[in-house]
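Standup notes
- HV: blocked on the assembly model, inputs below
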Amino acid sequence: MVIGLGPGREEEMTPRARQALARAEVIVGYRTYIDLIASLVAGREVVVTGMTGEVARCREAVARAAAGARVAVISSGDPGVYGMAGLILEILAGHPRGKEIAVSIIPGVTAATAAAATLGAPLMHDFAVISLSDRLTPWEVIARRLEFAAAADFVLVLYNPRSHGRPDHLHRARDIILQYRQPSTPVGVVRNAGREGEEAWVRDLATFLELPVDMVSTVIIGNSQTRVQDGRLVTPRGYRL
Amino acid sequence: MVIGLGPGREEEMTPRARQALARAEVIVGYRTYIDLIASLVAGREVVVTGMTGEVARCREAVARAAAGARVAVISSGDPGVYGMAGLILEILAGHPRGKEIAVSIIPGVTAATAAAATLGAPLMHDFAVISLSDRLTPWEVIARRLEFAAAADFVLVLYNPRSHGRPDHLHRARDIILQYRQPSTPVGVVRNAGREGEEAWVRDLATFLELPVDMVSTVIIGNSQTRVQDGRLVTPRGYRL
Protein backbone atom coordinates (compact mmCIF):
# COMPACT_ATOMS: atom_id res chain seq x y z
CA MET A 1 0.00 0.00 0.00
CA VAL A 2 1.13 3.53 -0.72
CA ILE A 3 -0.61 5.86 1.67
CA GLY A 4 -1.16 9.60 1.53
CA LEU A 5 -1.15 11.04 5.02
CA GLY A 6 -2.60 14.38 4.00
CA PRO A 7 -0.88 17.56 5.14
CA GLY A 8 0.09 16.28 8.56
CA ARG A 9 -2.59 16.89 11.17
CA GLU A 10 -4.38 13.70 12.08
CA GLU A 11 -7.75 15.38 11.51
CA GLU A 12 -6.82 15.86 7.85
CA MET A 13 -5.96 12.18 7.26
CA THR A 14 -8.74 10.14 5.64
CA PRO A 15 -10.21 7.16 7.53
CA ARG A 16 -9.13 4.98 4.61
CA ALA A 17 -5.50 6.02 5.09
CA ARG A 18 -5.75 5.54 8.83
CA GLN A 19 -7.23 2.07 8.52
CA ALA A 20 -4.60 1.03 5.99
CA LEU A 21 -1.90 2.22 8.36
CA ALA A 22 -3.47 0.23 11.20
CA ARG A 23 -3.40 -2.97 9.10
CA ALA A 24 0.25 -2.63 8.02
CA GLU A 25 2.94 -4.85 9.51
CA VAL A 26 5.85 -2.78 8.23
CA ILE A 27 5.77 1.00 7.74
CA VAL A 28 8.28 2.62 5.40
CA GLY A 29 8.89 6.35 5.11
CA TYR A 30 11.00 9.43 5.44
CA ARG A 31 11.74 10.24 9.09
CA THR A 32 9.82 13.55 9.14
CA TYR A 33 6.65 11.84 7.91
CA ILE A 34 6.98 8.95 10.36
CA ASP A 35 7.26 11.52 13.14
CA LEU A 36 4.03 13.20 11.98
CA ILE A 37 2.13 10.00 12.70
CA ALA A 38 4.18 8.60 15.59
CA SER A 39 1.12 7.71 17.63
CA LEU A 40 -0.32 5.68 14.74
CA VAL A 41 2.71 3.50 14.07
CA ALA A 42 3.45 2.43 17.62
CA GLY A 43 4.27 -1.25 17.99
CA ARG A 44 5.00 -1.86 14.31
CA GLU A 45 8.30 -2.24 12.52
CA VAL A 46 9.36 1.06 10.96
CA VAL A 47 11.90 1.44 8.13
CA VAL A 48 13.23 4.98 7.82
CA THR A 49 15.76 6.57 5.50
CA GLY A 50 16.78 10.15 4.72
CA MET A 51 14.97 12.43 2.28
CA THR A 52 17.20 11.45 -0.65
CA GLY A 53 17.04 7.73 0.04
CA GLU A 54 13.78 7.26 -1.87
CA VAL A 55 15.00 4.51 -4.20
CA ALA A 56 16.57 2.43 -1.41
CA ARG A 57 13.46 2.92 0.73
CA CYS A 58 11.07 1.82 -2.01
CA ARG A 59 13.25 -1.17 -2.96
CA GLU A 60 13.21 -2.26 0.66
CA ALA A 61 9.43 -1.88 0.78
CA VAL A 62 8.99 -3.99 -2.35
CA ALA A 63 11.43 -6.63 -1.03
CA ARG A 64 9.51 -6.87 2.23
CA ALA A 65 6.18 -7.13 0.39
CA ALA A 66 7.63 -9.83 -1.87
CA ALA A 67 8.61 -11.73 1.29
CA GLY A 68 4.99 -11.69 2.40
CA ALA A 69 4.71 -8.69 4.72
CA ARG A 70 1.85 -6.21 4.60
CA VAL A 71 3.82 -3.04 3.90
CA ALA A 72 2.70 0.59 4.00
CA VAL A 73 4.82 3.20 2.23
CA ILE A 74 3.84 6.64 3.43
CA SER A 75 4.03 10.05 1.76
CA SER A 76 2.80 13.31 3.17
CA GLY A 77 0.02 14.98 1.22
CA ASP A 78 -1.02 12.82 -1.72
CA PRO A 79 1.40 9.99 -2.57
CA GLY A 80 0.76 10.45 -6.29
CA VAL A 81 1.91 14.10 -6.38
CA TYR A 82 5.74 14.08 -6.32
CA GLY A 83 5.36 11.25 -3.78
CA MET A 84 6.27 7.58 -3.58
CA ALA A 85 3.45 6.04 -5.67
CA GLY A 86 5.27 6.25 -9.00
CA LEU A 87 8.57 4.93 -7.73
CA ILE A 88 6.87 1.94 -6.09
CA LEU A 89 5.11 1.09 -9.37
CA GLU A 90 8.33 1.47 -11.33
CA ILE A 91 10.23 -0.80 -8.95
CA LEU A 92 7.41 -3.35 -8.96
CA ALA A 93 7.46 -3.42 -12.77
CA GLY A 94 11.14 -4.39 -12.67
CA HIS A 95 10.82 -6.94 -9.87
CA PRO A 96 10.62 -10.65 -10.76
CA ARG A 97 7.64 -11.09 -8.43
CA GLY A 98 6.17 -7.65 -9.04
CA LYS A 99 2.99 -8.88 -10.69
CA GLU A 100 2.13 -11.03 -7.67
CA ILE A 101 2.21 -8.12 -5.25
CA ALA A 102 -1.12 -6.35 -4.83
CA VAL A 103 -0.70 -2.62 -4.50
CA SER A 104 -3.24 0.04 -3.62
CA ILE A 105 -2.63 3.76 -3.70
CA ILE A 106 -4.57 5.74 -1.14
CA PRO A 107 -4.99 9.42 -1.98
CA GLY A 108 -4.69 12.25 0.51
CA VAL A 109 -5.21 16.00 0.68
CA THR A 110 -2.28 17.43 -1.30
CA ALA A 111 -0.30 20.53 -0.29
CA ALA A 112 -1.75 22.57 -3.18
CA THR A 113 -5.30 22.42 -1.87
CA ALA A 114 -4.34 22.47 1.82
CA ALA A 115 -2.38 25.68 1.22
CA ALA A 116 -5.15 27.10 -0.97
CA ALA A 117 -7.75 26.54 1.79
CA THR A 118 -5.57 28.42 4.25
CA LEU A 119 -5.06 31.32 1.83
CA GLY A 120 -8.68 31.62 0.68
CA ALA A 121 -9.74 30.35 -2.74
CA PRO A 122 -6.90 30.90 -5.23
CA LEU A 123 -7.46 27.63 -7.20
CA MET A 124 -10.99 28.32 -8.40
CA HIS A 125 -9.72 28.45 -11.95
CA ASP A 126 -7.29 26.39 -14.06
CA PHE A 127 -3.95 25.89 -12.35
CA ALA A 128 -0.54 24.35 -12.95
CA VAL A 129 1.52 22.53 -10.34
CA ILE A 130 5.30 22.82 -10.81
CA SER A 131 8.16 21.59 -8.64
CA LEU A 132 11.19 23.92 -8.61
CA SER A 133 13.52 21.09 -7.60
CA ASP A 134 16.08 20.35 -10.29
CA ARG A 135 17.39 17.25 -8.54
CA LEU A 136 15.55 15.03 -11.05
CA THR A 137 14.45 17.52 -13.73
CA PRO A 138 16.69 19.85 -15.78
CA TRP A 139 16.16 23.53 -14.95
CA GLU A 140 15.45 24.25 -18.64
CA VAL A 141 12.35 22.02 -18.48
CA ILE A 142 11.16 23.74 -15.30
CA ALA A 143 11.78 27.20 -16.77
CA ARG A 144 9.85 26.36 -19.93
CA ARG A 145 6.89 25.10 -17.92
CA LEU A 146 6.91 28.25 -15.78
CA GLU A 147 6.97 30.38 -18.89
CA PHE A 148 4.16 28.58 -20.73
CA ALA A 149 1.96 28.34 -17.63
CA ALA A 150 2.46 32.04 -16.93
CA ALA A 151 1.74 32.95 -20.55
CA ALA A 152 -1.52 30.97 -20.56
CA ASP A 153 -2.68 32.65 -17.34
CA PHE A 154 -2.77 29.56 -15.15
CA VAL A 155 -2.73 30.06 -11.41
CA LEU A 156 0.67 28.60 -10.41
CA VAL A 157 1.36 26.31 -7.48
CA LEU A 158 5.05 25.86 -6.71
CA TYR A 159 6.23 22.80 -4.75
CA ASN A 160 9.79 22.55 -3.40
CA PRO A 161 10.22 26.29 -3.95
CA ARG A 162 13.57 26.70 -2.21
CA SER A 163 16.24 24.63 -0.48
CA HIS A 164 19.89 24.98 0.45
CA GLY A 165 20.87 23.36 -2.83
CA ARG A 166 18.84 25.80 -4.92
CA PRO A 167 18.59 29.12 -3.10
CA ASP A 168 17.97 31.18 -6.25
CA HIS A 169 15.39 29.07 -8.13
CA LEU A 170 12.48 30.97 -6.68
CA HIS A 171 14.02 34.26 -7.73
CA ARG A 172 14.53 32.97 -11.27
CA ALA A 173 10.98 31.61 -11.36
CA ARG A 174 9.62 34.97 -10.23
CA ASP A 175 11.54 36.77 -12.98
CA ILE A 176 10.12 34.45 -15.64
CA ILE A 177 6.58 34.95 -14.37
CA LEU A 178 7.03 38.75 -14.23
CA GLN A 179 7.36 38.75 -18.01
CA TYR A 180 3.66 37.82 -18.17
CA ARG A 181 2.08 39.05 -14.92
CA GLN A 182 1.84 42.41 -13.16
CA PRO A 183 4.14 43.00 -10.15
CA SER A 184 0.92 43.53 -8.16
CA THR A 185 -0.26 39.94 -8.87
CA PRO A 186 -1.24 38.41 -5.51
CA VAL A 187 1.03 35.67 -4.14
CA GLY A 188 0.35 33.46 -1.13
CA VAL A 189 2.91 31.46 0.79
CA VAL A 190 2.08 28.78 3.34
CA ARG A 191 4.71 27.05 5.48
CA ASN A 192 3.71 23.70 6.97
CA ALA A 193 0.28 23.82 5.31
CA GLY A 194 -2.20 21.83 7.38
CA ARG A 195 0.45 20.89 9.96
CA GLU A 196 1.60 21.99 13.38
CA GLY A 197 3.36 25.32 13.03
CA GLU A 198 1.41 26.47 9.96
CA GLU A 199 2.19 30.05 8.89
CA ALA A 200 0.71 31.95 5.94
CA TRP A 201 1.35 35.24 4.18
CA VAL A 202 -0.30 37.13 1.34
CA ARG A 203 1.96 39.45 -0.69
CA ASP A 204 2.49 40.14 -4.39
CA LEU A 205 4.96 39.18 -7.12
CA ALA A 206 7.04 42.29 -6.43
CA THR A 207 7.61 41.56 -2.74
CA PHE A 208 7.03 37.91 -1.84
CA LEU A 209 10.72 36.97 -2.13
CA GLU A 210 11.23 38.72 1.23
CA LEU A 211 9.24 35.96 2.92
CA PRO A 212 10.95 33.00 4.64
CA VAL A 213 10.07 30.53 1.87
CA ASP A 214 11.73 27.14 2.38
CA MET A 215 11.42 23.42 1.58
CA VAL A 216 8.24 22.99 3.61
CA SER A 217 6.51 25.94 1.93
CA THR A 218 3.98 26.02 -0.88
CA VAL A 219 3.78 29.13 -3.06
CA ILE A 220 0.61 30.06 -4.97
CA ILE A 221 0.80 32.79 -7.60
CA GLY A 222 -2.49 34.23 -8.79
CA ASN A 223 -3.64 34.54 -12.39
CA SER A 224 -4.55 37.89 -13.98
CA GLN A 225 -7.93 37.89 -12.20
CA THR A 226 -6.84 36.87 -8.69
CA ARG A 227 -7.41 39.50 -6.03
CA VAL A 228 -7.01 40.00 -2.30
CA GLN A 229 -10.24 40.34 -0.31
CA ASP A 230 -10.11 40.86 3.45
CA GLY A 231 -6.64 39.37 3.47
CA ARG A 232 -7.57 36.29 1.46
CA LEU A 233 -6.65 35.28 -2.06
CA VAL A 234 -9.63 34.81 -4.36
CA THR A 235 -9.54 33.82 -8.03
CA PRO A 236 -13.03 34.45 -9.44
CA ARG A 237 -14.55 31.58 -11.36
CA GLY A 238 -16.53 34.03 -13.45
CA TYR A 239 -19.98 34.11 -11.86
CA ARG A 240 -21.94 37.34 -12.30
CA LEU A 241 -22.78 38.67 -8.86
CA MET B 1 -17.75 26.78 6.74
CA VAL B 2 -17.05 25.52 3.26
CA ILE B 3 -16.43 21.80 3.43
CA GLY B 4 -14.73 19.49 0.96
CA LEU B 5 -16.32 16.05 1.11
CA GLY B 6 -13.60 14.33 -0.84
CA PRO B 7 -14.53 12.11 -3.77
CA GLY B 8 -17.67 10.69 -2.20
CA ARG B 9 -17.01 7.57 -0.16
CA GLU B 10 -17.22 8.25 3.55
CA GLU B 11 -13.85 6.58 4.11
CA GLU B 12 -12.25 9.28 1.93
CA MET B 13 -13.71 12.20 3.91
CA THR B 14 -11.33 13.72 6.45
CA PRO B 15 -12.28 13.68 10.15
CA ARG B 16 -12.08 17.48 10.09
CA ALA B 17 -14.74 17.66 7.36
CA ARG B 18 -16.90 15.13 9.17
CA GLN B 19 -16.71 16.99 12.47
CA ALA B 20 -17.51 20.30 10.79
CA LEU B 21 -20.55 18.71 9.18
CA ALA B 22 -21.66 17.34 12.54
CA ARG B 23 -21.51 20.83 14.10
CA ALA B 24 -23.46 22.57 11.34
CA GLU B 25 -27.06 23.68 11.90
CA VAL B 26 -27.81 24.30 8.22
CA ILE B 27 -26.26 22.33 5.35
CA VAL B 28 -26.26 23.86 1.87
CA GLY B 29 -25.37 22.02 -1.30
CA TYR B 30 -26.16 20.59 -4.69
CA ARG B 31 -28.59 17.67 -4.45
CA THR B 32 -26.14 15.02 -5.72
CA TYR B 33 -23.60 15.95 -3.04
CA ILE B 34 -26.19 16.02 -0.26
CA ASP B 35 -27.20 12.51 -1.33
CA LEU B 36 -23.59 11.32 -1.07
CA ILE B 37 -23.62 12.13 2.64
CA ALA B 38 -27.28 11.52 3.47
CA SER B 39 -26.49 9.58 6.64
CA LEU B 40 -24.36 12.45 7.96
CA VAL B 41 -26.91 15.23 7.53
CA ALA B 42 -29.88 13.51 9.13
CA GLY B 43 -31.85 15.76 11.47
CA ARG B 44 -30.46 19.05 10.20
CA GLU B 45 -31.98 21.62 7.91
CA VAL B 46 -30.83 21.11 4.32
CA VAL B 47 -30.92 23.74 1.57
CA VAL B 48 -30.62 22.25 -1.90
CA THR B 49 -30.63 23.79 -5.36
CA GLY B 50 -29.80 22.52 -8.84
CA MET B 51 -26.31 22.37 -10.30
CA THR B 52 -26.54 25.80 -11.93
CA GLY B 53 -28.02 27.49 -8.87
CA GLU B 54 -24.62 28.13 -7.29
CA VAL B 55 -25.03 31.87 -6.81
CA ALA B 56 -28.49 31.60 -5.22
CA ARG B 57 -27.28 28.75 -3.01
CA CYS B 58 -24.25 30.65 -1.77
CA ARG B 59 -26.24 33.85 -1.20
CA GLU B 60 -28.70 31.86 0.89
CA ALA B 61 -25.83 30.33 2.87
CA VAL B 62 -24.34 33.75 3.58
CA ALA B 63 -27.75 35.18 4.55
CA ARG B 64 -28.31 32.32 6.99
CA ALA B 65 -24.83 32.76 8.48
CA ALA B 66 -25.44 36.51 8.82
CA ALA B 67 -28.63 35.67 10.72
CA GLY B 68 -26.57 33.67 13.20
CA ALA B 69 -26.77 30.08 12.00
CA ARG B 70 -23.77 27.75 11.82
CA VAL B 71 -23.84 26.98 8.10
CA ALA B 72 -21.93 24.34 6.14
CA VAL B 73 -21.64 24.73 2.38
CA ILE B 74 -20.53 21.46 0.84
CA SER B 75 -18.61 20.67 -2.33
CA SER B 76 -17.49 17.27 -3.51
CA GLY B 77 -13.73 16.82 -3.78
CA ASP B 78 -11.91 19.93 -2.62
CA PRO B 79 -14.14 23.02 -2.29
CA GLY B 80 -11.31 25.26 -3.54
CA VAL B 81 -10.96 23.48 -6.91
CA TYR B 82 -13.86 24.67 -9.11
CA GLY B 83 -15.98 24.41 -5.94
CA MET B 84 -17.93 26.78 -3.73
CA ALA B 85 -15.09 28.34 -1.68
CA GLY B 86 -14.41 31.22 -4.04
CA LEU B 87 -18.03 32.14 -4.58
CA ILE B 88 -18.67 32.21 -0.82
CA LEU B 89 -15.71 34.55 -0.31
CA GLU B 90 -16.84 36.79 -3.18
CA ILE B 91 -20.36 37.04 -1.79
CA LEU B 92 -19.06 37.69 1.73
CA ALA B 93 -16.89 40.53 0.42
CA GLY B 94 -19.98 42.21 -1.01
CA HIS B 95 -22.19 41.61 2.03
CA PRO B 96 -22.69 44.44 4.55
CA ARG B 97 -21.97 42.08 7.45
CA GLY B 98 -19.44 39.96 5.56
CA LYS B 99 -16.50 40.89 7.75
CA GLU B 100 -18.31 39.71 10.89
CA ILE B 101 -18.88 36.20 9.55
CA ALA B 102 -16.09 33.77 10.37
CA VAL B 103 -15.42 31.40 7.50
CA SER B 104 -13.22 28.35 7.34
CA ILE B 105 -12.44 26.36 4.25
CA ILE B 106 -11.86 22.67 4.84
CA PRO B 107 -9.90 20.93 2.11
CA GLY B 108 -10.66 17.49 0.73
CA VAL B 109 -9.20 14.92 -1.65
CA THR B 110 -9.75 16.43 -5.10
CA ALA B 111 -10.84 14.46 -8.17
CA ALA B 112 -7.42 14.86 -9.82
CA THR B 113 -5.60 12.87 -7.18
CA ALA B 114 -8.46 10.46 -6.47
CA ALA B 115 -8.55 9.57 -10.17
CA ALA B 116 -4.76 9.42 -10.35
CA ALA B 117 -4.60 6.94 -7.46
CA THR B 118 -7.08 4.69 -9.25
CA LEU B 119 -5.13 4.85 -12.51
CA GLY B 120 -1.65 4.38 -11.00
CA ALA B 121 0.73 7.31 -10.63
CA PRO B 122 0.25 9.69 -13.58
CA LEU B 123 0.79 12.91 -11.56
CA MET B 124 4.34 12.25 -10.42
CA HIS B 125 5.53 15.17 -12.50
CA ASP B 126 4.31 18.73 -13.15
CA PHE B 127 0.66 18.85 -14.16
CA ALA B 128 -2.02 21.30 -15.25
CA VAL B 129 -5.66 21.16 -14.21
CA ILE B 130 -8.11 22.51 -16.80
CA SER B 131 -11.91 22.59 -16.85
CA LEU B 132 -13.44 22.11 -20.29
CA SER B 133 -16.66 23.84 -19.24
CA ASP B 134 -17.21 27.07 -21.14
CA ARG B 135 -20.20 28.07 -19.04
CA LEU B 136 -18.06 30.67 -17.21
CA THR B 137 -14.88 30.77 -19.32
CA PRO B 138 -14.61 31.56 -23.06
CA TRP B 139 -13.53 28.55 -25.13
CA GLU B 140 -10.61 30.59 -26.54
CA VAL B 141 -9.10 30.83 -23.04
CA ILE B 142 -9.54 27.10 -22.50
CA ALA B 143 -8.03 26.27 -25.89
CA ARG B 144 -5.02 28.49 -25.26
CA ARG B 145 -4.39 26.83 -21.90
CA LEU B 146 -4.66 23.37 -23.45
CA GLU B 147 -2.21 24.35 -26.14
CA PHE B 148 0.38 25.90 -23.81
CA ALA B 149 0.14 23.10 -21.26
CA ALA B 150 0.53 20.50 -24.00
CA ALA B 151 3.48 22.37 -25.53
CA ALA B 152 5.29 22.55 -22.17
CA ASP B 153 4.78 18.80 -21.59
CA PHE B 154 2.59 19.05 -18.52
CA VAL B 155 0.51 16.03 -17.58
CA LEU B 156 -3.06 17.25 -18.16
CA VAL B 157 -6.03 16.73 -15.88
CA LEU B 158 -9.38 17.61 -17.45
CA TYR B 159 -12.36 18.40 -15.21
CA ASN B 160 -15.89 18.69 -16.65
CA PRO B 161 -14.69 16.98 -19.83
CA ARG B 162 -18.08 16.50 -21.49
CA SER B 163 -21.73 17.35 -20.94
CA HIS B 164 -24.90 17.64 -23.01
CA GLY B 165 -24.20 21.31 -23.56
CA ARG B 166 -20.68 20.72 -24.85
CA PRO B 167 -20.51 17.28 -26.49
CA ASP B 168 -17.56 18.15 -28.75
CA HIS B 169 -15.20 19.98 -26.36
CA LEU B 170 -13.28 16.85 -25.52
CA HIS B 171 -12.77 16.12 -29.20
CA ARG B 172 -11.47 19.64 -29.80
CA ALA B 173 -9.21 19.40 -26.76
CA ARG B 174 -7.79 16.12 -28.01
CA ASP B 175 -7.05 17.64 -31.42
CA ILE B 176 -5.16 20.54 -29.81
CA ILE B 177 -3.11 18.18 -27.65
CA LEU B 178 -2.33 15.92 -30.63
CA GLN B 179 -0.36 18.77 -32.16
CA TYR B 180 2.19 18.28 -29.37
CA ARG B 181 1.86 14.67 -28.21
CA GLN B 182 2.08 11.28 -29.88
CA PRO B 183 -1.20 9.44 -30.62
CA SER B 184 0.19 6.67 -28.39
CA THR B 185 0.33 8.98 -25.34
CA PRO B 186 -1.40 7.14 -22.49
CA VAL B 187 -4.76 8.51 -21.34
CA GLY B 188 -6.72 7.46 -18.28
CA VAL B 189 -10.39 8.07 -17.65
CA VAL B 190 -12.13 7.56 -14.32
CA ARG B 191 -15.89 7.88 -13.84
CA ASN B 192 -17.08 8.50 -10.28
CA ALA B 193 -13.52 8.56 -8.94
CA GLY B 194 -13.51 7.47 -5.30
CA ARG B 195 -17.30 7.00 -5.29
CA GLU B 196 -19.79 4.21 -5.57
CA GLY B 197 -19.86 2.99 -9.15
CA GLU B 198 -16.25 3.91 -9.91
CA GLU B 199 -15.05 2.79 -13.36
CA ALA B 200 -11.63 3.32 -14.90
CA TRP B 201 -10.02 2.82 -18.28
CA VAL B 202 -6.53 3.20 -19.72
CA ARG B 203 -6.28 4.00 -23.43
CA ASP B 204 -4.28 6.47 -25.54
CA LEU B 205 -4.82 9.81 -27.25
CA ALA B 206 -5.77 8.10 -30.51
CA THR B 207 -8.60 6.02 -29.01
CA PHE B 208 -9.87 7.39 -25.70
CA LEU B 209 -12.74 9.34 -27.27
CA GLU B 210 -14.52 5.99 -27.68
CA LEU B 211 -14.94 5.80 -23.89
CA PRO B 212 -18.15 6.89 -22.14
CA VAL B 213 -16.64 10.12 -20.80
CA ASP B 214 -19.24 12.33 -19.11
CA MET B 215 -19.72 15.06 -16.49
CA VAL B 216 -18.69 12.82 -13.59
CA SER B 217 -15.50 11.71 -15.33
CA THR B 218 -11.93 12.92 -14.88
CA VAL B 219 -9.52 12.57 -17.81
CA ILE B 220 -5.75 12.39 -17.29
CA ILE B 221 -3.47 12.71 -20.32
CA GLY B 222 0.14 11.67 -19.85
CA ASN B 223 3.20 13.75 -20.66
CA SER B 224 5.87 12.59 -23.13
CA GLN B 225 7.34 10.23 -20.52
CA THR B 226 4.15 8.63 -19.19
CA ARG B 227 3.86 4.90 -19.84
CA VAL B 228 1.53 2.00 -19.13
CA GLN B 229 2.89 -0.67 -16.80
CA ASP B 230 0.75 -3.69 -15.92
CA GLY B 231 -2.35 -1.72 -16.88
CA ARG B 232 -1.46 1.32 -14.78
CA LEU B 233 -0.40 4.82 -15.83
CA VAL B 234 3.03 5.81 -14.52
CA THR B 235 4.81 9.12 -15.14
CA PRO B 236 8.44 8.66 -14.05
CA ARG B 237 9.76 11.32 -11.73
CA GLY B 238 13.25 10.74 -13.08
CA TYR B 239 14.90 8.45 -10.54
CA ARG B 240 17.68 6.22 -11.88
CA LEU B 241 16.71 2.61 -11.18
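- HV (later): unblocked. Chain A has a mean pLDDT of 94. The first strand of chain A starts at residue 2 and ends at 4.
- Next: hand off to the docking folks.
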